[in-house]
Amino acid sequence: MSTASVNGITVGYDDTGGGDGDRDPLVLVHGHPFDRTMWRPQVEHFGATGVRVITPDLRGYGESTVVPGKTPLETFARDIAALLDHLGIDRIVLGGLSMGGQIVMEFHRLFPHRISGLLLADTSAQAETADGVRWRARMAERLVREGMGPYADEVLPQMVAPENVRAMPAVARHVLDMMRATSPDGAAAALRGRAERPDYVATLSRVAVPALVVVGDRDEFTPISDARLMHERLPDSTLVVVEGAGHMPNLERPAAFNDALAALLARA
Fold first, then answer.
1. Residue 9 in contact with residue 61, Cβ under 8 Å?
2. DSSP string for residues in 93-127
3. What would be the CATH architecture of the domain defined by 2-267?
4. Residues of the chain whose pLDDT is less than 50?
């Protein structure tokens, strides 16, 4: 694990592989309420093939600084850009899952010239609904009041397809441990900021690089229809529906996820 001081905080991150200097590094952005270890199967697979893989902990998560209050997606995106500057990296293939995918779209809005390929996994491009804004506000207060434990136990069967919770206990335990270890203040700040996210649907048509849209066919948070909408708006994209996976196909079906991502890297 490495750390960097950027934008007034300390960011924990892993920087793996990098044997092939001709490729742009792959940067993977975790979702809520997880940390960079959710990308372990991808780091191990692609790092072993010579791809430089960088996985940061977002502010408020993992080993990065917790900043209470409200963290907009723009702040997360600028933290990633600052980390790239710290590492002397110009262009990247950028991917994210769920909230991480929305951070990827925000990064593209701000820094399109720094991206050579996009991965959008189990995420959605639409702005939050009025009901969603209220729900996120209530959930933020709940997490601060109760801690992460009750929420983690409640949503585990939605994060990981119920049959995979039973069949893949190590994966289920990893997901549960990440959620329980997350700072309630950090998670609440992200919920409040995410509620104010803009609509990215229109901006997708301006993506000028290859893109990959991935979704689990059992995902209860981001349905296949959201993935299809992004795929239709992106000028040069591939849609992959991962069978037998819920909200975290990179952990539930890592081989299928890695195959799809490898195809994107070959194009980017």
1. no
2. EEEEETHHHHHHHHHHHH-GGGEEEEEEES---SP
3. 3-Layer(aba) Sandwich (3.40)
4. none
